[in-house]
Structure of Carboxy-S-adenosyl-L-methionine synthase:
Amino acid sequence: MPFPKDSLYANPLGEVGAFKFDEAVVKVFPDMIQRSVPGYAAIISAIGLLAGRFARDDSVCFDLGCSLGAASLAMRRQIVANNCRVVAVDCSEAMVEQCRKNLADSAVAGVDVVCADIRDIPIENASVVVLNFTLQFIPLADREAFLAKLYRGLLPGGILILSEKLAFDDPRQQELQTEMHHLFKKAQGYSELEISQKRSALENVLIPEAFAVHRQRLKSVGFSSVEVWFQYFNFASMIALKC
Ligand SMILES: C[S@@+](CC[C@H](N)C(=O)[O-])C[C@H]1O[C@@H](n2cnc3c(N)ncnc32)[C@H](O)[C@@H]1O
């Protein structure tokens, strides 16, 4: 059955409120993220493959900002390690409720879904940590301490998969990549009005940073190696490795 179509910004809203991961968003989220994030399906699929490669026996794989559990499901389907839990965390009660239903419907066992702020939960004994388009919603001032906590919680040989919308230092690149993303959304059926109202809603809510900033901060908290493994216009996914 196709997902309900995202038409949340299809009509003029007058004043556009700040974007929230509420019940209205939850209802259309699978359609919204597929049509808004170039390469989303490929990234989810690769997260599964990476988890299959990096998950260790007797460890934990975290999906932080799990939304409806797409990355958790992909990981669970690929993990062959023994006694390896997947812990999916999101602070939106509406997301968590639907995530639990999705997991039950998929008959995939072994995912614990937690409703919490990812800055507050302990991260321990992790072989895999996924932040799939979540860090961009964490206040800038909290990002370094949060990533340092993830680094400490990862086991030696562990992996952080970090997917983010990117900003660019060069104004020509910033303009071009933004334009290409908007063309991508138009090709997915979004109107100019939908694109512009959604952009207003995300202003000051989703704060993108340049790859160089991500890389520098990941290195400064301890990751020995940081690379982009996927990029499609201004959306990228990085791999950070702990020795
Ligand atoms: C763009 S969605 C992530 C998509 C999801 N990872 C996926 O692969 O489908 C961002 C999610 O992060 C969650 N989020 C944002 N800030 C959070 C925080 N401080 N703690 C927990 N979850 C958070 C939101 O509720 C939302 O569900």
Remarks:
- The two ends are 44 Å apart (CA to CA).
- The longest strand covers residues 154-165.
- The domain at 40-167+205-241 is CATH 3.40.50.150 (Rossmann fold).
